[in-house]
């Protein structure tokens, strides 16, 4: 499994870019910036801005190079972001994929194999959530033992046999005609830690293919967490 890196573990040279205009949207741009972990220690990061969160416009979803999960960063507000620049307003075009097959994958439970450094493979049970915005051959996915938002080109793993679908155990309950299903987007949630203490988070998005599942951004973390709030 390619583990998600922390900002302090990612370093590298950066090339000059354009200074960010705070009045223009960053969605679809390739960006680079420093990340201040501690006084005097700044690492360099480069990535693509996938989306701007509607209910919290200061929050952007970003896919960084060499990292498999999606981060939620207040790019223009977080003081740890240093010298934010736009490398390019355009990203490379991506190969076309089968849209019908892609739609059929959404909301499905899967077993996903990952290769370890010693060549052995582990299977992770997860759920395909949605097509990623901007980087359309990629899919959003999450896993039972690490419920954060990841992003992979799943067609490649499907073809190689490293991704397989799990048969549905029971039919998904559909709302009755005329029934209104309240969305939790915009609500604040409280999560109790096993070691004690609580975290406060904001529900930022509902998964269309699985309406009981939501994306949550906690105040003390830049990862996006994925939970079924109806089961919870």
Automatic annotation (TrEMBL):
Pfam families: Spin-Ssty (PF02513). InterPro entries: SPIN/Ssty (IPR003671), SPIN/Ssty_sf (IPR042567). It comes from the Eukaryota. GO terms for biological process: gamete generation. PANTHER family: SPINDLIN (PTHR10405). Belongs to the SPIN/STSY family. This is Spindlin. It comes from Alosa alosa. The lineage of its organism: Eukaryota, Metazoa, Chordata, Craniata, Vertebrata.
């Amino acid at each position: 499994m390619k583990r998600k890196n922390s900002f302090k573990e990612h370093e590298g040279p950066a090339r000059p870019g354009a200074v960010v205009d705070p009045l223009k949207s960053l969605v679809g741009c390739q960006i680079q910036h420093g990340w201040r972990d501690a006084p005097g220690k700044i690492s360099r990061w480069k990535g693509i801005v996938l989306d701007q969160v509607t209910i919290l416009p200061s929050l952007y979803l970003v896919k960084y190079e060499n990292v498999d999960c999606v981060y939620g960063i207040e790019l223009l507000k977080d003081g740890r972001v240093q010298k934010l620049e736009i490398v390019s307003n355009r990203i490379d075009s991506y190969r076309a994929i089968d849209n019908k097959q892609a739609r059929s994958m959404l909301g499905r439970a899967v077993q996903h194999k990952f290769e370890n450094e010693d060549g052995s493979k582990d299977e992770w049970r997860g759920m395909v959530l949605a097509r990623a915005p901007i980087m359309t051959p990629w899919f959003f996915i999450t896993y039972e033992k690490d419920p954060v938002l990841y992003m992979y080109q799943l067609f490649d793993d499907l073809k190689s046999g490293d991704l397989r679908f799990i048969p549905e155990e029971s039919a998904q309950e559909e709302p009755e005609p005329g029934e209104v299903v309240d969305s939790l987007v915009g609500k604040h949630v409280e999560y109790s830690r096993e070691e004690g203490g609580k975290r406060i988070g904001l529900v930022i998005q509902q998964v269309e293919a699985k309406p009981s599942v939501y994306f949550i951004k906690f105040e003390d973390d830049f990862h996006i967490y994925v939970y079924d709030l109806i089961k919870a």
